[in-house]
């Protein structure tokens, strides 16, 4: 199969014609396993000011953007349509600009383990955005668990920081990053059914490249990066894997869908991130961290699993799947 043949149509789509939904979960797991190193490696890259937060947050998108241009050019991809460009802006704003920039700044003062647990609300947040975007009507259990997970994350952050009065501005950045990523994930999952999995992240990277290149240049001029070998290695991973190749698998999984089910795989991400933080950085995983992670993951899991596949009547037709409204594909 040619590289660009994952762009899909209503009925002939390779993603929608998968015989087993487990394939979507498998691709989602590969993506999450790749992303699980993002928080610890970002912490390594920005600690002690070796590589500035602005440089790491924008520079990794520049690396991925250059790779995206090469991939799109070599496979001669057709330009997205006007409306698709608008939707790609949501993806770019969420997972190319918003999440990387916000977490990079947050991790200059926060530990990787702390960030991993706060970010554990991302699966539920993604499901919420998918529900609103697709038009499904979840029950009270879903909303109760979602709110409960958010409260648990805030309480964890307060306890972990020494009390509510000791909450850092980094916690607000983490929460905002979660919201941004949730919007980018949900919209990207829908676009993957039209443009293809890897094409979606590639066009998003190209769209944001001018902004990120400008920010990276400003950062490099004002504070020339002087990182260690380990910090540069972490930066390369963030650019090539976390910002680019990881999304090949993640958006393919979301494209096979349904988004709500595949997003459950994200529940493993904070657990893996905590393990990486302990292994690579030597951060201690305290009992408070374990309990906080467990409560947040439990609430997020209940929220995602209780999501009802019921959509408003005017958005579905008898005999059609209710998971995600399909659209005509762009031939490539």
In words, what does this structure look like?
This protein has 332 residues and is mostly helical. The chain has one domain. The chain has 13 helices and no strands. Mean pLDDT is 78; it is low at 1-14 and 308-332.
Secondary structure blueprint with pairings:
Elements: H1 22-35, H2 38-46, H3 53-74, H4 82-106, H5 112-118, H6 122-134, H7 140-160, H8 169-195, H9 197-222, H10 229-256, H11 259-262, H12 269-281, H13 287-305
What is this entry, summarized?
This protein has 332 residues and is mainly alpha-helical. Helices cover 69% and strands 0% of the residues.
Total of domains: 1
> Helix- and strand-based class?
mainly alpha
Mean pLDDT comes to 78
Low-confidence stretches: 1-14, 308-332
Keywords:
about 70% helix, disordered C terminus, mainly alpha, 13 helices, about 325 residues
